[in-house]
Write a structure and sequence with these properties.
The structure holds 3 protein chains of 3 kinds. By secondary structure, chain B is an alpha+beta fold. Helices cover 44% and strands 11% of the residues of chain B. In chain B, helix 1 runs antiparallel to helix 2 and helix 3 crosses helix 4. Helices cover 26% and strands 20% of the residues of chain C. In chain C, strand 7 and strand 8 form a beta hairpin. The N and C termini of chain C lie far apart (70 Å). The complex binds flavin mononucleotide, iron/sulfur cluster (SF4) and FE2/S2 (inorganic) cluster.
């Protein structure tokens, strides 16, 4: 289910109406007005970027990088082709917001990308879509057709000289392609193996050309910002944390789903919106920003507000906004085992620490979970993790280590119990 | 290029549409789509098919093989008529992912990675499909997502798959 | 220029340098595996992590650009801790069995592990095992040892030009592999053995035959093409065990062709001769050197006395050393014989003002803005020249070809004209005419362009040559061995003049330039008019000539044939004396390469059995014949005498005379007679592993395009009988990029040794 409290991305969407995603409905609720405004009022590239900066919109893909600033890095007078890329490779466990956007409001994304293209002088864009959501890919292709037919997309947009071509690219099952440079490699028809940075995509991106990459939700927020003004967007949230954010809440709540709420909402209120804990059980822990974020125990979590700064202060990350809620029945060893398996499975295999280290981490946690743990294993996990973190080509290495560090920081006793008694403290999932 | 076409004209036309999305000197970009289209027609990718597609896209066969073996939705071994992929990643596991997988194992009498004797079903364990709010989720033949796969829902789905 | 500090040392480096470049420039060693100066940067091994001031994390030196004022610490705690951590990861799944690994003793991982590894392993889980791959007859695999540095994969793609290896799978299960069922067939594939920092890829012929510390290393020069690659020959018990490149940036860089790397197997072959042989009463008898040489001296004297000096010819292979060729010529001259021939595959000799050469240095070649190659199977004939040009193309060089086949050069071509072999002249004329038109120039008077049709392809080639700062036009083996070579040369020279290009010849053999320097100019076929006596130096008449059948027939008729060769051969049928002389590996000598550079080398092993270096044989013969000035003490003395006058002034590709060229029509079946890569000389032909490669298989094939095959009533895969003078049985193979009616039938092959010249026919066998 999807709920929005204050809508930016989902403003006016009727989730019960199967046609609400279509162009007509989108235009009716104010869609493509931002694009028209730009074209008709000949708003300059600088003005758009200034508006984006004013909005304080931070990238919704996980790293939270200020979008306006990123757009300003793009060399605007570069003589050759430049590219705009949308990252819809939503694969971070717990995250399912971009799918929702693709299915229910694809034109917001398309309009956002067209505006991005305009602002940075880019004429070609691609949207890289997660493999497992083929229906979202098909929907996107349909929406593109609609936009082209209506003159919003393609050559001479709305009669102006501005042209922008946009295509969907369907992934086929690799979490790592969410990492922006792996995504670019994949778009080039290669294995999704991240590139060493620098050079950054703004100077060496798709096909070696300057490229800007943003997340789906980031782009889908753009029309609102241009239509209503950056300041208004900022005021929806709190300073340095502008706007609303989609939180994908999963796990032990009564109503899992996507919640579009202002940044800065107390976690307790979000939990309430989700109907509270399932079966009235007690909250044990929350992973607040997708599986790569360190877990936070209930007491710390209940003190947090849902924004970048508050969660960072508590020792975790807001990440992609995936909130994984776990109740008292969850065995943390088993939870970590499943997560470690994921990173081991999804490591692209190119750089040594991650290729070799993620398997090592998983195997040790797996042993502990299966009653074969040794007392020295916990320090070994931290030491191996320390040899991975910060030494890999991309952040997947860090992402694999953070769950381990978080779990051992807050739930070490549970792991020790496992090693000593060769069994779980709690029943598990 | 192999003289006899391994794919139907419809599939080749689809591959051509993929090729048209990318700059003319970047045909390689279409390899993922081309392999997907080939697999959708033939159900799994044989070496012969990979080489054929590589030739069509004009890249070295080993480059196509790299792609086919890297992304886990490509099937390099035969699969049943319906490939069922159940997500068991943590968010799904918290809401019955493993129960769904176990239910299917027991009901189909096969383990993860196996195919039923009648060649109808192949069971796979998947990683996060980006639909955790609708757990348990299951993917049928890579392209159809099924939500809230409780045992009852699974029974109903299996009955539909003929 | 940027100023930086590495481990406290201040230095300046050019902008765009990496930390690794900077460290290398001051001799600071940073451990690494994936980094290689000739390959793209992968930064995947993470072994080169170093500390950079103000960076919160250690950074990979190989990929981190230097910035002004940067301070780098390669051995700080942070750096060493990171390096040790990486080393531990590399070792957890690597077998720790160096004593039985073929790389043991020369393994980067082993070397670094000693410095960085820990004693006991903290990894208590099961180790990964990876299935080995079949990469063909040259490279052996032990894939469990692979550390995923991806050097081999990058080599095939970037240097060899076609990605034959890939990294299949992902994560921990990533494996280096060729496409299933395929082997690595590049003509420079052996370099992946050198590139592999561990024992995952090793030499198949060398496998387990010696340990590295048992080998002594000797320098030498490669003998199978005109490049003169520098070698390190590794020897144990007076036997060559392995050949590796000796880095020389100006010649072979750090590479070696497979031919130069693996041909050594022949030097240890059973077919080596070890004693002089004399045929007496039709029976071969072993003889001592004294007897054999007296026999030769007397024989030569009496043939000259009976039939005159013109009845004797000296025939030498251009892979003989400068010293050998010099004494050979001097010896024959001493008995009045001046007929010495070395360009045995040439049927229409090209006369130039001086010695034919590359026209520039090898290093300069790839710096051209445009290069046109006329008539060459470039990748196979000149593997490392092809490689250099490929790198040039990446930097913007426009490479084009006029050729009688369309073999893929595995690089981007700016233009390509493919003709019948007997129309190569017309192919060049079309480009010339296009160039003349484009430039508004006039062709030299000896070239008649009337009736020449300017095709679109020819125009494209011409365009690629015009308006460039530096351009070269090169002639390859198929051009120089063409039946109309003089015309072809004249037309190409005219084209070079019109577009302002340097004219160059890609020498076919190790000492082609040296042979010409010595006056082995070649008046044509010495076998066409049979002589009474022949002396053959390292030349196998049936394979090293343009028309083997004719050569053998002439030799069979001769009164006396002296054969000097390291190998047994069909010389048993026609020779009277066979003298076992040293191959290049068992004698000191000099080759002059295509850029005119003399490179001297010593013998790397002692002569096998009673084999003697040929120059010493000539010295003794000279003395036996009572000739003046044959008292050389060393090959160096001979060389110094030869080179006293220098070389440079003698190199000149300008045509000696204005040959008239006029377009002709041609039709009917025509043979493209070409020497396969592994049939070029007596050594290569006996190198067993090379003979097992995919490239070697062309020696038994007839290749033609589909239309031609169909017109012959033959399908690909059929056995066919080819008649041309004699007969040959070959397998028909389709070659899409040949002109109609062209039959690509190998020369110098056992399968085609009975073929001669003239009309060719093909039937299904
Ligand atoms: C391992 C890994 C996985 C990632 N997955 C995603 C993803 O699924 N979706 C996404 O938008 N960004 C993902 N990112 C972040 C992207 O690299 C990139 O920062 C983002 O797409 C930039 O867009 P934004 O600035 O709009 O957030 C991932 C990063 C890493 C290191
Ligand atoms: S950290 Fe892992 S996923 Fe990222 S590049 Fe290295 S091996 Fe690949
Ligand atoms: S040498 Fe730098 S990462 Fe391998």
């Amino acid at each position: 289910m999807t709920v929005y409290v204050k809508g930016v991305v989902f403003e006016g969407v009727d989730f019960d109406d199967p046609n609400s995603w279509k162009l007509d409905a989108y235009v009716k609720r104010g869609g493509y007005a931002a694009l028209k405004k730009i074209i008709e009022n000949k708003i300059t590239q600088d003005e758009i970027i200034a508006e984006m900066k004013a909005s304080s919109l931070r990238g919704r893909g996980g790293a939270g990088f200020p979008t306006g600033l990123k757009w300003s890095f793009m060399p605007r007078s570069f003589p050759g082709q430049k590219y705009l890329v949308c990252n819809t490779d939503e694969g971070e466990p717990g995250t399912f917001k971009d799918l929702d956007i693709m299915v229910n409001n694809p034109h917001a994304l398309i309009e956002g990308m067209i505006i991005g293209g305009y602002a940075m002088g880019i004429t070609v864009g691609y949207n890289y879509i997660h493999g497992e959501v083929f229906e979202a890919y098909e929907r996107f292709e349909e929406a593109l057709e609609e936009a082209r037919a209506a003159g919003f997309l393609g050559d001479k947009i709305l009669g102006s000289d501005f042209c922008f071509q946009l295509h969907g690219h369907h992934g086929y099952g690799a979490y790592i392609c969410g990492e922006e440079t792996a995504l670019l490699e994949s778009l080039e028809g290669k294995k999704g193996q991240p590139r060493f940075k620098p050079p950054f995509p703004a100077s060496y991106g798709l096909y070696g050309k300057p490229t800007t990459i943003n997340n789906t939700e980031t782009f889908a927020s753009v029309p609102y910002i241009i239509r209503e003004g950056g300041q208004k967007f900022l005021e929806l949230g709190k300073p340095n944390n502008g706007g609303t954010k989609l939180f994908s809440v999963s796990g032990h709540v009564n109503r899992p789903g996507n919640y579009e709420v202002p940044l800065g909402l107390p976690f307790s209120e979000l939990l309430e919106m989700c109907g509270g804990m399932r079966d009235g059980k007690k909250l044990k822990a929350v992973i607040p920003g997708g599986s790569s974020a360190p877990v936070l125990p209930a007491d710390i979590m209940m003190q947090c507000t849902m924004d970048y700064d508050s969660i960072a202060k508590a020792g975790s990350m807001l990440g992609s906004g995936a909130v994984i809620v776990m109740d008292e029945s969850v065995c943390m060893v088993k939870a970590l085992e499943r997560l470690s398996y994921f990173y081991h499975e999804e490591s692209c295999g190119q750089c040594t620490p991650c290729r070799e280290g993620t398997g090592w981490l998983y195997r040790v946690v797996h042993r502990i979970e299966h009653g074969l743990g040794r007392p020295e294993d916990l320090d070994l996990l931290l030491s191996v993790g320390g040899n991975i973190a910060g030494r890999t080509i991309c952040a997947l290495g860090d992402a694999a280590v953070m769950p381990v560090q978080g779990m051992l920081k807050h739930f070490r006793a549970e792991f020790e119990h496992h090693i000593q008694h060769k069994s779980c403290l709690v029943p598990g999932f | 290029m192999s003289a006899n076409n391994l794919l139907t004209p419809e599939s080749l036309a689809q591959i051509d549409r993929e090729l048209a999305k990318y700059p003319a000197d970047q045909r390689r970009s279409a390899i993922m789509g081309a392999l997907r289209i080939a697999q959708t027609e033939k159900r799994h990718l044989t070496n012969e098919l990979i080489e054929y597609v590589a030739d069509y896209v004009r890249i070295p066969p080993v480059a196509a093989y790299e792609v086919a073996s890297f992304y886990n939705m490509y099937d390099m071994k035969p699969v049943g008529k319906y490939k069922l992929t159940v997500c068991t990643n943590l968010p799904c596991a918290l809401s019955g992912g493993y129960q769904a997988a176990d239910y299917l194992k027991q009901k189909l009498g096969i383990d993860i990675g196996e195919t039923t004797a009648d060649g109808k079903f192949t069971l796979k364990e998947g990683e996060c499909m980006g639909a955790c709010g609708y757990a348990p989720v299951m993917l049928v033949n890579n392209h159809t997502m099924c939500n809230h796969m409780t045992p009852e829902a699974l029974d109903k789905k299996l009955a539909e798959l003929e | 220029m940027l100023e930086i500090e590495i481990d406290g040392k201040t230095l300046t480096v050019p902008g765009g340098s990496t930390v690794m470049d900077a460290a290398n420039s001051v001799g600071v060693h940073i451990p690494h595996f994936c980094y290689h100066k000739k390959l793209s940067i992968a930064a995947n091994c993470r072994m080169c992590l170093v500390q950079v001031e103000k960076a919160p994390k250690p950074l990979p030196a190989c990929a981190t650009p230097v910035t002004d004022g940067m301070k780098v610490y390669t051995h700080s705690d942070m750096a060493v801790k990171a390096q040790k951590g990486v080393m531990e990861f590399l070792l957890i799944n690597h077998p720790l069995d160096c004593p039985i690994c073929d790389q043991g003793g020369e393994c980067n991982l082993q070397d670094l592990a000693v410095g960085y590894g820990q004693s006991g392993s903290r990894y208590q889980e099961e180790k990964r095992v990876v299935v080995n791959k079949d990469l063909g007859p040259l490279v052996s695999t032990d894939m469990t040892r692979c550390i995923h540095c991806s050097r081999c994969v990058r080599f095939t793609e970037e240097i060899a030009g076609f990605q034959e290896l890939g990294m299949g799978g992902r994560g921990e299960f990533t494996e280096v592999l060729p496409f299933i069922g395929k082997t690595v067939n590049s003509e420079i594939s052996g370099n992946i053995i050198d590139l592999c920092p561990v024992g995952a890829l090793t030499s198949k012929p060398f496998r387990y035959s010696a340990r590295t510390w048992e080998l002594s290393r000797r320098k030498s020069v490669a003998a199978h093409d005109g490049l003169g690659s520098n070698l390190v020959v590794q020897v144990k018990d007076h036997k060559i065990k392995r050949v590796l490149p000796l880095e020389n940036e100006a010649i072979n860089e750090c590479w070696l062709s497979d031919r130069d790397r693996f041909s050594y197997e022949a030097l240890n072959s059973d077919e080596r001769l070890t004693k002089p042989l004399i045929k007496q009463g039709g029976v071969w008898q072993e003889a001592d050197w004294q007897t054999a040489l007296e026999y030769v001296a007397n024989g030569l004297k009496s043939v000259v006395a009976d039939h005159g000096a013109d009845s004797v010819a000296g025939v030498a292979n251009q892979a003989a050393t400068l010293e050998e060729l010099f004494l050979f010529k001097k010896l024959l001259a001493g008995v009045g014989v001046h007929n010495v021939e070395s360009r045995l595959r040439v049927t229409d000799p090209v006369a130039t003002k001086g010695v034919q050469w590359l026209g520039q240095s090898i290093a300069d070649l790839a710096q051209n803005n445009a290069v046109l190659v006329v008539g060459s199977t470039l990748r196979k004939d000149q593997p490392l020249i092809a490689q250099r040009l490929r790198q040039g193309v990446k930097r913007g060089l426009a490479l084009s070809i006029v050729n009688s086949h369309g073999d893929d050069l595995l690089t981007k071509l700016a233009g390509e004209v493919v003709t019948r072999p007997d129309q190569l002249v017309e192919g060049v004329l079309a480009v010339l005419k296009a160039a003349v038109e484009l430039k508004g120039a006039t062709a030299p008077a000896n070239i008649d362009l009337v009736g020449v049709e300017v095709t679109a392809a020819a125009k494209q080639v011409a365009e690629s040559l015009i308006g460039k700062e530096s351009t070269s036009v090169l002639l390859g083996n198929l051009a120089m061995q063409n039946a109309r070579a003089s015309e072809l040369y004249a037309a190409t020279a005219a084209l070079a003049e019109v577009v302002g290009a340097k004219l160059g010849v890609l020498s076919d053999a190790a000492n082609s330039v040296g042979a010409q320097l010595l006056g082995f100019q070649g008046a044509g076929n010495v076998f066409a008019q049979p002589k009474k006596a022949y002396v053959l130096l390292n030349a196998e008449a049936d394979f090293d000539t343009a028309n083997g059948a004719e050569a053998v027939a002439a030799l069979e008729k001769a009164e006396m044939v002296v054969v000097m060769s390291p190998f047994q051969s069909c010389a048993f049928d026609y020779a009277d004396v066979i003298l076992p002389v040293s191959p290049f590996s068992e004698t000191s000598g000099t080759f002059v390469n295509m850029e005119g550079l003399p490179q001297s080398f010593n013998g790397v092993v002692r002569p096998l059995g009673e084999t003697r270096p040929a120059w010493k044989v000539f010295r003794v013969l000279g003395n036996l014949l009572g000739l003046e000035n044959f008292h050389y003490n060393s090959s160096e003395e001979i060389r110094d005498e030869i080179l006293a006058a220098g070389i440079d002034g003698k190199l000149d590709n300008a045509p000696a005379a204005a040959v008239t060229v006029k377009a002709q029509a041609a039709s009917g079946l025509v043979r493209l007679a070409e020497v396969p890569a592994y049939q070029v000389d007596a050594i290569t032909r006996r190198a067993t592993s090379l003979q097992a490669t995919a490239d070697a298989q062309v020696a038994g094939q007839l290749r033609a395009n589909a239309a031609t095959l169909a017109s012959l009533g033959v399908a690909a895969g059929d056995q066919v009988r080819v008649s041309q003078g004699g007969e040959a049985l070959l397998v028909a193979v389709e070659d899409k990029k040949l002109a109609d009616q062209v039959l690509r039938v190998p020369l110098a092959s056992p399968a085609t040794r009975n073929l001669g010249a003239g009309v060719i026919t093909v039937t299904k066998a």
